[in-house]
Amino acid sequence: MHKTPLLDQLESGPYPSFVKDLKRLAAQKPQVADLLGQLERSYKEKITHWKHGGIVGVLGYGSGIIGRYSDLPDEFPGLEHFHTMRINQPSGWYYSTEALRELCDIWDKHGSGILNLHGATGDIVFLGCRTDDLEPCFADLTAKGWDIGGSGSAMRSPSCCVGPSRCEWSCYDTMEACYQLTQEFQFDLHRPSFPYKYKLKFSGCPNDCVASVARSDMSMIGVWQDDIRIDQAAVKAYAGGELKPRGGGANVDKLDIKADVTDLCPTACMSWDGSTLKIDNKNCNHCMHCINMMPQALRPGTDVGCTILLGSHAPILEGAQMSWVIVPFMRMEEPFDELKELTTNITEWWAEHGKNRERTGELIMRLGMRAFLEAVGLPPVPQTVRVPRANPFFFWQQSDFDAEAAGKKYYTTK
Amino acid sequence: MSERITDIGPPHFGKFLPPIIKENYGKWKYHEIPEPGVLKHVSESGAELYSIRIASPRILTTLQARDLCDIADKYCGGYLRFTSRHNAEFLVSDKAQLEPLKAELAQRGIPKGGTGHSVTNIVHTQGWIHCHTPAIDASGVVKAVMDDVFEYFGSHQLPAQVISRPDA
Predict the structure, then answer these.
(1) I need a labelling partner for A188 at 20 to 30 A (CA). Which of A252, A372, A394, B98 fits?
(2) Is B137 left (phi over 0), alpha (psi -120 to 50) or beta?
(3) Sign of the C-alpha dihedral, residues B31, B35, B36, B39?
(4) Which pLDDT belongs to residue A382?
(5) Can you give the pTM of this predicted structure?
(6) Ramachandran quadrant class, B72 (left: phi over 0; alpha: psi -120 to 50; beta: rest)
(7) By the 8 A CB rule, do A86 and A149 touch?
C-alpha cells in the first residue's frame, strides 16, 4: 500500500468516505492500491495523472468504453490500462439484489471492482478495466442480459425519473418511454455517427427530478392540459395545521397558504380567501410549487402528456444553455411512435448540418429556430418563445383584451 | 462469432420492481416525509411503501454494493434503487422492518437524509480519480463539503431543497 496522508483525512467526517471504501478493496486488488497512490500524487501536485487513450472498445461498437491510461505506469503498474465501461442502467435505477450481485461478480472477475452508481448520464460505470479484459467482460454482461451504454458522439443512454412506479405526479410512463426509446436507438447508441453527444431524459412532471431541462439535449417533461385537482377539505386541513406542509419535508410545521403558496405563485393565478382555494388554470404555468407544498390537497390534472424541450448542454462550445420548448404538448402512449419519429427527424437534421462537436442547441442558435422548425416539420407556436410573458416591446391595451374576448386570434397554428 | 450478443439494450425494469410497486404502478395517491430521509408513498389501494434514502459517495466498490444488497435482502425483500443524485433507497413494504432497518443503518454508519428541505447529495464528475482534463478534484471536494453541511443533509431546516449538480 502506498502512503496516502492527504487522502487519509477524507476518511474522517460523517459523510460516507470513498477513500475508506477503496482502502477496503485495495487489500484484495493491487490496482486499487495504485489508484489511491496516484490520487495522493494528484492531491500533492494538484494535477491529474490520467491520459485519454486512443481507441479501445468491444468488437462492433464504437461507444461505451472510454480509454484511460496512467501517465505514471512505472510507478503505478496497476493503472497502466484503467478504462471506463459504461453499462446501460435499467429505467429508474431499480435493481433486484440478485441482479446487482451479478454485476458485481462480473466486475470482480474482469476489472478493478470500482463502480459509480451511477454516472451523471445515468449509466452504471465500471472504472478500471484492462484492454484485454474488455471483450470477455462484455460477453459475460450480454450473456446475463446487460449491454453497454453510449459515449462519444453518439446517442447517450437515456434516463428517467421513477415516474408512475413511485410517484403520484407522473403525467406519463417515464420508465417505459425511457426503455422503449433506448431500445429504438441502439444502433445510434453504440455506433457514434452524430456531430456530438445527444442526451434524452424523461421527467414525469415539471419538478423534473432528473434535471432534464439542464442536462439533456432533448427533455420530455410530463404536463397536464386540464385543471389541477383540488381537495378543498384537505386545503383547509393544511391551513389549520392538521396536515404538514410538503408532507413533513418543509422547515415549518404549519402552512400559511397565502404567504407560502398563493403569494409565491409565479403567475399570480391563485387566491385563498380563508376557506376556498381558487386557481385560474389557464394562467397556470405548471411550476408545481402549490402541489409540492400541499401533496394531499392538490394533484395534476388527468388530461396528460409531455412538453418537449430541446437544446441544453454544458459550457463547451458556446457557453451553457438550458432547453426551451419545441413541442408544447405530446401524448405519451406506447409505442411512443410520434416521439421516436421526432427524435429521428431532429438527429438527422443535426447530423447533416452540425459542425463537429456542435450540440443541437448550438446548431439552432447558429441556423435559427425557423430553419430548425421547417426541417423537422414542427409548427411555430407561441409556447416556443424562450422567455414568455416578458416581452418588453408589446404593450397590452384594454382594446386588445376586448378584441380577444370578441374572437380575435393573435396567432394561428397549422 | 455467430452467437455473439449485441445491441440488446438494458434489461426491462419490470424485472427489478418489488411486488408492491408492480401492484401499485401508476396508482400512487400522495406521499409524506415522516422524518428526514424517509418517504412514505400511499396508493389508491391503501398500500403503503416506505423508502429510506441514504447517502452515497457515488464511487462504490463491489464490497460496498454487496453490503447494500445484504441490507436490502434483510429488510426489503431483495430490492433497492438509486436516485439521480446518486443516493440509494431501500424500499420497505413491511412497516415493521422500518425501525430495525434504521437501527442497522445507524450501526453501520450509513446516514439517511436528502429529502424535503435538505441539502441532498452533490452530483459530481470523476475529477482526479479517473479523468484526463480536471483542474481540480471532484469526489474529495464533495466529501469535504458534505461533511461540512452534514447537519442539513439529515434535516429539513432550510427554506427549500438544495441540489447541486455540475454536469451536462
Answers:
(1) A372
(2) beta
(3) negative
(4) 84
(5) 0.94
(6) alpha
(7) yes
| pLDDT tens-place string over residues A286-341 | 999 999 999 999 999 999 999 999 999 988 777 888 999 999 999 999 999 999 99
Task: Note which residues in 2-21 of chain A have CB less than 8 A from chain B.
Answer: 7, 10, 12-19, 21
What distance lies between CA A130 and its chain's CA centroid? 30
Q: Which three cell numbers stand for residue A260?
A: 407560502
Does the beta-carbon distance from B117 to A98 stay under 8 Å?
no
Residue located via cell numbers 483525512: A9
In order, the DSSP letters of chain B are -TT------SPPGGGG--HHHHHHTT-EEEEEEEETTEEEEEETTS-EEEEEEE---SEEEHHHHHHHHHHHHHHSTTEEEE-TTS-EEEEE-SGGGHHHHHHHHHHHT--B---SSSB-PPP---GGGT-SS-SS-SHHHHHHHHHHTHHHHT---SSS-B------
For A284-350, give the DSSP string. Answer: -----HHHHH-TTTEE--SSEEEEEEE--B-STTT--B--EEEEEEE---TT-HHHHHHHHHHHHHH
Out of B9, B35, B68, name the one closest to residue A183 (CB).
Answer: B9
| B160 to chain A: closest CA residue | A250
B162 φ, ψ (degrees, to nearest 5):
-120, 120
Query: What is the CA angle A203-A209-A212, rounded to 5?
Result: 55
H-state helical runs in A241-300 = 289-293
User: Which three-class secondary structure state does DSSP give residue A97?
Assistant: helix
Using DSSP's 3-state secondary structure scheme, residue A413 falls into: coil
Q: Using CA atoms, how far apart are residues A204 and A107, in angstroms rounded to an integer?
A: 33
User: What secondary structure does DSSP assign to A53-90, as a single string?
Assistant: -S----TT-SSSEE-EEES-TTT-GGGSS-EEEEEPPP
**Size of chain B, expressed as the number of residues it contains:** 168
Q: Is the minimum CB–CB distance between A44 and chain B shorter than 8 Å?
A: no
Full 3-state SS string of A140-167: HHHHCCCCECCCCCCECCCEECCHHHCC
- In degrees and rounded to multiples of 5, residue B31 shows phi and psi of -135, 160
Residue-wise pLDDT for A347-381, tens only, equals 999 999 999 999 999 999 999 999 999 999 999 88
Phi (first) and psi of residue B104, to 5 degrees: -65, -40
Hey, is the C-beta of B106 within 8 angstroms of any chain A C-beta?
A: no
Burial annotation B59-95 (CB, 10 A radius, 16+ → b, else e): bbbbbbbbbbbebbbebbbbbbbbbbbbbbbbbbbee
Q: How far is the C-alpha of A178 from the C-alpha of A148, rounded, in Å?
A: 16
